[in-house]
Amino acid sequence: MKIRIIFLCLATLSAWGQGTMADYKRADYIKESTRDKVYNEPVNVNWIDKTYTFWYTVQTPKGPVYYLVNAETKQKQKAFDTDKLVEVLSREAGKTAIMNDLSSLKMNENQFSFAAYGKNWEYDLKSGELRSLGEVPKPRPLGYWGNLRDESEGNPAASPDKKWKAYIKNSNVYVSRADDPASERQLSFDGSPGEFYSAWIYWSPDSRHFVSNRVRPGQKRSLTLIESSPTEQLQPKLHTRDYLKPGDALSQRYPVVFDVEKGTARAVDVNLIPNQYGLSGPVWHKNGGSFVIEYNQRGHQVYNVLKVDASTGQALEVIKESSKTFIHYSGKRFRHYAESTEEMIWMSERDGWNHLYLYDARTGTVKNQVTKGPWVVRRVVQVDEPNRRIVFEGSGKEIGQDPYFIQLYSVNFDGSGLTRLTGENGNHRAVFSHDYKYFVDTWSRIDQAPETVLREARTGSTVMKLEKADIKDLLKTGWVMPEVFMSTARDDSTDIWGMIIRPSHFDPKKKYPVIEYIYAGPHDSFVPKNFGIDSRGDLHQLAELGFIVVQIDGMGTSNRSKAFHDVCWQNLKDSGFPDRIKWIKAAATRYPYMDIRRVGIFGNSAGGQSSAGALLHHPDFYKVAVSSSGCHDNRMDKIWWNEQWMGYPIGKQYEESSNVTHAHKLQGKLLLILGEMDDNVDPASTFQLINAIIKANKYVDFLFVPGMGHSMGGDYGEHRRRDFFVKHLLGVDPPEWEGHVNTSGQ
Known about the structure:
Layout: H1 2-15, H2 21-33, E1 43-47, E2 53-60, E3 63-70, E4 75-78, H3 82-93, E5 103-107, E6 111-116, E7 119-124, E8 130-135, E9 157-158, E10 164-169, E11 172-177, E12 180-186, E13 196-197, E14 202-203, E15 209-216, E16 222-227, E17 237-242, E18 252-259, E19 265-267, E20 276-279, E21 283-284, E22 290-297, E23 302-309, E24 315-322, E25 335-338, E26 343-348, E27 355-360, E28 365-369, E29 376-384, E30 389-395, E31 406-412, E32 419-420, E33 427-432, E34 438-445, E35 448-456, E36 462-468, H4 472-476, E37 483-488, E38 495-501, E39 512-517, H5 539-544, E40 548-553, H6 562-566, H7 577-590, E41 594-604, H8 606-617, E42 624-628, H9 639-646, H10 652-657, E43 669-675, H11 684-695, E44 701-705, H12 714-730
Parallel strand pairs: 39-40, 39-41, 41-42, 42-43, 43-44
Antiparallel strand pairs: 1-2, 2-3, 3-4, 5-6, 6-7, 7-8, 9-10, 10-11, 11-12, 13-15, 14-15, 15-18, 16-17, 18-19, 20-22, 21-22, 22-23, 23-24, 25-26, 26-27, 27-28, 29-30, 30-31, 31-32, 33-34, 34-35, 35-36, 37-38, 38-40
């Protein structure tokens, strides 16, 4: 009887037409048909040098149009005739040019420069002449999660007055007059290959002193990758990357101040900077009498700012920041030194919310808290020292709005005069003029098209309306706006925000499986807040196959209170799942067509860790998962991200959050996707999970993509992911691929 019931359910689902070839074609159609269908939304907003003129681009039904606007005269005009540029570019490039192919755009009142078809170009706005500036240079290789950069050797560092040069020889510090090599003097004598002086030398502005760090180098670790199918040769290639992991020994840097005339060396007290995760380079004050360094203790629970006297080497701990969990140094750090008044503005979560504080830099005491309340400062835009005013972005202050929406504010140094510069119910993006007199403000929501105005920055008053986006043609394609949905968290009081995406052929009488796109990395929040067609992961396309797709920011992610964020601490396997599950259940209560008996989940990188973890820790709710480029054991991944949230020293918490540890608990259907050239997350992390699954005698699907780096899988992986959900959530065999036999789920 049980088998019969399941058969009837699947037959009914198939009859509804979900997961058919028509659905796949419609998904592809949505992506193509919606391209460039949002008209009159400014992009590439740029102020021209130190003027009050700015330019921007809008898409129109006939293609891009470029506008020049003078904020003082309130005049708006087309920058140039795009048809004429296309004609000239086509002739010079020897192919039919398209304005949407232009990149690296720059403009002033006379020239428009851009890159297109492998070359850089410059177009004279007055004469209409176009000239080639040569080939576009190939990009330099990206850096990696590196080990110690070579500080032991380097070129001599000249003093600002060009009279001296300092350099490293035999691991020690030497100085000589720039015009007399014979005047060489050795200033340090305690350097050795095992603890050398750094060639990164920092001169004081008055050329009297300089700083070099005595460096005790840490360990080196290499990530080894095998490229199986290189394009330039038959045989595989071996690649290595510098790649430190949690727990690895780090370099320690001990600043020493050298007096050029006296030949003295004064070391900063090493007891003030023990067990470093990082130590910033010194930032000299303009008078040359002192400098500042920032000290991040290993474990990210202590972060101090030290002011060092150049003549004595004595250090004052101006700012002492500590936390029982973590200090989000990589995302919530701001320091500004007002030299004329010897004050510092500092960002901190010490009261439970991310706010600004004003310090007396002479004594290290807090003069006053600048911003306060149950909301957060997101970013400081400007510090206006003469007027003692700060312009910043904040979230969560406006009652009745999504707490992630960015609004702009200004406030005085003493905390008075808090002024809201924007207010419309949406997420605001501002581009300021050179002197912060004006800013271009664009706001939108995922369910409301963008509007753009020019504002006066002192009061936020509107100077002129610029654009209101037109989405009529977009909606004609069948594209459906996401819905904003809010529920409560595991504590039944904190609000959790997310979005719901439905297919264009949505029928409330049908039942739809639910798929969650997850990224729960604690470094940020991830549900889109701006209006946009393409969400990461092609969520609208996935919905077209017959699913309700959701995205949620659960506890443990950033941009809310410190308590909200701290849920992730030493517990990344949590991933906010109690909040996510509760949110999806609440949505299904309101919308019964959401079938939460069939819930899938997918994600990439940290989202890959979470999506696989869903089937290990919550298999009663999540039934199908696709995990791409997953960080399945935080001990296998890059050092900074994992120690930031999982802590130091390495302890049992790492093992407890590892998917490998819990692999024997696997239930449901799991597809793992991995690129062999992933130099972001060590591919061994996925292989070790597969090894543990095999040892547990569990079943797993695996797609290994030659040559691919850190990715969700590319077009091939995206197709496999869709097929996997169609087969295991809809219960139908996906249509065969054109020119291929479909092996999805086998």
